[in-house]
Amino acid sequence: MNLILAMLVILIVAALMVVFSSRLLMGAISLAVTSIMVTLLMFKLNSPFAAVFELSICAGLITVIFITTISFVKPVAEEDLLEIRKRRIKKYMALPVILIIAGVVMSFVIKPMILALPATGQETNFANVLWNLRQVDILGQAIILLVGVFGIVVLFKEGQKK
Amino acid sequence: MSATNVEILKIFIPFIILLLIVGFYYILATRNLIRILLGVEIITKAALLAIIVVGYVTNNIPLAQSLAIIMIIIEVFVVAVAAGIIIQIYKRTGSVDARNIRNLRG
Known about the structure:
The complex is a heterodimer of chains A (about 160) and B (about 110). Chain A has helices at about 1-20, 25-45, 50-70, 80-90, 95-110, 125-135, 135-155.
């Protein structure tokens, strides 16, 4: 339990690092750390398939997409960095305070709460659930993949009219 | 639902809500389009974690995993298309500031 708690704290710290980093690259790397923490938590919660997807796609592919996008954009000059950092701290100073207040409030609200979720574990085979029970989702996913590919092709198509 | 599962749920819920607050605050406070996308990612992480935790405590892990995988794949395409849009906006306006793309406003 302590290990899970430590992972959750690291997860929040990494998310805060995404917010407070003045360089976009550091933000993207912190997001990858967040993904890694989510992966470890998934492994702890007996969800290895989702964890592998999270690690390879969210921590790997999405970080690559972010770094590629950042490399297209003009970097901030070194002399402006200090000014930007100061501005960012001023802008996001309220966030840790909000988090602490929300944390304290939730610790009072959630602890005495009586939670009752239905126990609905009928199917135990993951492959059965994914390929038989969620067939419509798979179809929708395939359509979204197709739409995504077309979207990217259209976005990066050079102006052919010229 | 056993007592341990309730305990696990009570540990996870506050952290998931905190992660959601971080993501929403980030999206609301920033004007940089890439940072907005990073904020969306943080919110997605919170949602993903919530799905897995609820799947675990209700003893329905296979369903939670399949939903999480579908969500991850859709997330990738959202990020890829959004990144493409951001690059095109940068090419046209020379910045990634959300205030510079108000040309379509009525």
